[in-house]
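INFO batch 0412 | record 1 of 1 | parsing
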Amino acid sequence: MSQDVRQLEPSALWNKFADLNAVPRPSKKEERVIAFMRDFGANLGLETHVDEVGNVIIKKPATPGMENRTPVVMQSHLDMVHQKNADTVFDFNTQGIEMYVEGDWVKAKGTTLGADNGLGVATIMAVLESTTIAHPPLEALFTVDEETGMTGAMGLKGGLLTGGILLNLDTEEDDEIGVGCAGGIDVTATRTYKEEDTPEFKIGFEIVVKGLQGGHSGMQIHEGLGNANKIMNRLLFDGFQNFGLRISEIDGGSLRNAIPRESKALVAIDAMHEDAFLLELNLLANTIKRELSTTEPELDIAVSKSETPEAIMDLGVQEGVTRALYAALNGVYRMSADIPDLVETSNNIARVLIKDGNISIGCLTRSSVESSKMDLANMLRATFELTGCEVEFSGDYPGWTPRMDSPVLKTLTTVYETLNKDKPHVAACHAGLECGILGQNYPDMDMISFGPHIKGAHSPDERAQISSVQKYWKFVVEVLKAIE
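INFO prediction complete | emitting tokens
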């Protein structure tokens, strides 16, 4: 299937993408892709360096005649989000991504595609390998662990790079030039509880929420997509109120930066309420599906009888945690008052795991305003602490403040208008980009972000538009030529 991708134009970029996607590269397990990139640079005879946290830096001299132009850093991250459909058999630690072409799109078989940010990586590789593309002095920066902590960008020391301009190739709309982004913080609530033996008069049921689209918890948080953890909690809350439902286990969501698509719960109810429980829960499930019918047409809520679980949660803890999950904000908290249509602050309730006497709830809170980010994080802290949880803040990273007088922004805007006879959309985004972090050690670097059209990032529906990649590639080539 990847052979079809290799036949696409621009062939230099798509072939590098196919090479990259053959290398397993989930976040925090990038050893193989680091070695792959190090060998790539060395085989080209270019100066190649791996820093102490795993970032790969490859330097290429300027094209003859362009030596005195501003050195440029081209930057993308090596890791990818590893999400798959429940019925897809795939091991991200050992397998390469299985790609195929469908119309104007490149897709993957039941998994994330890795276009985020593999297309950016492949772009830089193609430029480094090219003998015909004109460019200033280049420094290629391939960071690690962007998707689950941005530790690569955080660990990059000052003084390793000399470039005055940074081109971040990690946005997902080909008519957009990014000038700012949100910061983020992980909010994690945990506690233990005493398990109780399940009474003999109770019977077991499994509840499964699936078929949701999922997606990027920053870029798509405003789209009204279903959150499997919130839907599951709504079902469980109703079941307890009406039928004495008791929770044995919940396993919902996965990564913080992905809107949760699936959740599974094992519960017990009073046997005498079986018929009424099934009727009521199915009525509620149909109500939820009608509410979300426009945004989530494939939502499936299944209730099936199972073996009665041996143990259930302590009743008081169950009441507290279900109420806390009901109260905890998920979605948009505040829209920007300064930038039209920009989400300022949001939260994604990404992960709920309750099992064997332990509760863990993971959120990712984002904002382009630091004080608003911490305001929402503290609201979540207070919500979960009220039910006896310990709450930890971690992975805090800054946003990237827009600089509208940026010289490189003017260059890119001019090139875009010349190529496309239209104005680009200059915008800040609600995703977390590495520019804000990199700017801490390189405060004088003029930064900009752009990329091709990618849909469904952070979900198995991720796909890259072929015609957009062609448009984007021409833009990259002309931008490198135009930088003074």
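INFO post-check: DSSP finds twelve helices and 23 strands in the chain.
INFO record closed
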